Amino acid sequence: MVPWVKKYAPKSLQEVIGHEKEKALLKKIVESHSKKGKPVFLYGGTGNGKTCAVYALANDFGLELIEVNASDTRNAASIESMLGGAINQGSLFGGGKIILIDEVEGLSGTKDRGGIPAVAKLIEKSSFPIVIIGVDAYAPKLKALKKASELIHFKQLDYEEIFPLLKKICSKEKIGFDEDALKHIARSSGGDVRAAINDLQSSASGAKITMDSVAWTGERNVTVKMENALKIVFKTKNPLLALRAYDEVDEDIDKIFLWVEENLPREYVKPKDLATGFDNLSLANVFFGRIRRWQYYRFYVYCYALLSAGIALSKEEKYSSSISYRPTTKLLRIWMANQRNAKRKGIAHKIAGKTHMSSYRAFHDAVPFMAALSKSKTTGNNLAELFDFNSEEVNWLKEFKN
Ligand SMILES: Nc1ncnc2c1ncn2[C@@H]1O[C@H](COP(=O)(O)OP(=O)(O)OP(=O)(O)O)[C@@H](O)[C@H]1O
Ligand SMILES: [Mg+2]
Question: Which fold has domain 4-153?
């Protein structure tokens, strides 16, 4: 049986549903590509047509498509050998070509062996249009590529855009359907067209697709986004409504903490509301700490209650402002701090392994001590041998300042 996602994959850009402005932009960039043209960075959630749009585009313009799937080609050497040739040689059939670097997140970003710097370097030289596809163009490791490219965002599609496609497939397959059933599939796909078509095919075993045959699809894919949950919490004064806000959020509770923390000061601008809000947030955090320390899982109830109804009732009256809630920047800051500490952690780990002290103690107490000892060349060498420090670690210790 041929999967319908393959059978009905769009052959032309016109058949790619939605994304009208973005498609026009893609076309324009390819049409007017000059030697100095920037690459396109196409990004967005899964299954909404990024890869198939580029194939359709190549088809429309009669261009040869050279694809490098970044998940298979992680390091600089293989990127260079795969892309280098394609970028410089003419097309196999004498026409033009498009170079597609799909799933760019799969490339490693490290400086020495990294695929990302290799791509960034190669795109400067390309005389053909390049399309890079990824999920999130704002990921820190993709910064250089993002900066060098023209960004195009494929947003998740609305169910009203997906529904006609499902209808068309049913009529081509000569399968009867209830409109409500197809709408249900379209809705529960969460904007993922691939998921919607797969669900349609799985529901089509009987003579007709009815609500009964699609009821199961509602159980997956429904990820009410965090933003929607926050909107409920911040905008309602009704505790019962607020209590259910996170029911369908598919995120860990620590992520919820970060989202609330990030957006609370943006929503609750009156000092009194803000103070009460943070009091409730910190109380939730106290319970969360107890869960982690003592595994008192029943405290989750209090955590969620404080994060939802607690925050909702912290305001005197609701704010009419409409802001879009944003994900936390705290994780990024933690990540940066971790990067800074990575070397020290590695050293502490080696010390801890040999001396049987905890990594924590080694990190805080032993590292400065070892660093002081390492200032002397012979002791430094002896320590390096004892603890198996590599040359980078030895240098780091020498330069360490407390
Ligand atoms: N906008 C669309 N219009 C028509 N069909 C679509 C669309 N989006 C997805 N499809 C269908 O879903 C299949 C998968 O889409 P595609 O591979 O382009 O998704 P993607 O955005 O690249 O997803 P991923 O991020 O998971 O790689 C296509 O072969 C096609 O059948
Ligand atoms: Mg894809």
Answer: Rossmann fold (3.40.50)
